[in-house]
Design brief:
By secondary structure, the protein is α+β, with helices and mostly antiparallel strands. It folds into two domains: 62 residues, no CATH class; 42 residues, no CATH class. Helix content is 38%, strand content 19%. It has two helices and five strands; from the N terminus they run E-E-H-E-E-E-H. A three-stranded antiparallel sheet has the order 3-4-5, with no helix packed on it. A two-stranded antiparallel sheet has the order 1-2. The longest helix has 30 residues.
């Protein structure tokens, strides 16, 4: 028995469609697959979906990370346990309350810091 399904791996729609029907999410026309082919296609769709979720989680986590404003390093410690707003960078020695939480800005600072070191 053959089943009609959306062939787009990046599309989350995985329900059965009618012949020549278009996918409601991506607009691609349904194609006919055997059961063994459907298993492979659904596995690829699942892996893509998990990869997107993993990327979102990593991006969210990177948004919460703290970076040194001097060198862009994430190797930071709280200087004194009873004053948690004072941070110390273990790479460059920076001490202060000002900390970056922007991953892109920290990457730029890391590049600049590497250039000035050389």
């Amino acid at each position: 028995m053959r089943v009609w399904i959306c062939p787009n791996v990046k599309c989350a729609f995985d329900k059965e469609l009618q012949p020549s029907q278009k996918c409601p999410l991506c607009g691609e026309e349904a194609k006919e697959f055997s059961f063994s082919e459907i298993g492979n296609l659904l596995k690829q769709k699942w892996e893509f979906k998990k990869g997107v979720e993993r990327a979102r989680r990593e991006e969210k986590l990177a948004g919460r990370m703290k970076f040194c404003p001097k060198c862009g390093s994430s190797n930071l410690n709280v200087l004194v346990f009873y004053r948690p707003s004072v941070w110390k960078c273990l790479d460059c020695g920076y001490e202060g309350a000002f900390i970056l939480e922007d991953n892109k800005l920290a990457e730029k600072l890391q590049e600049q810091h590497r250039k000035t070191k050389q």
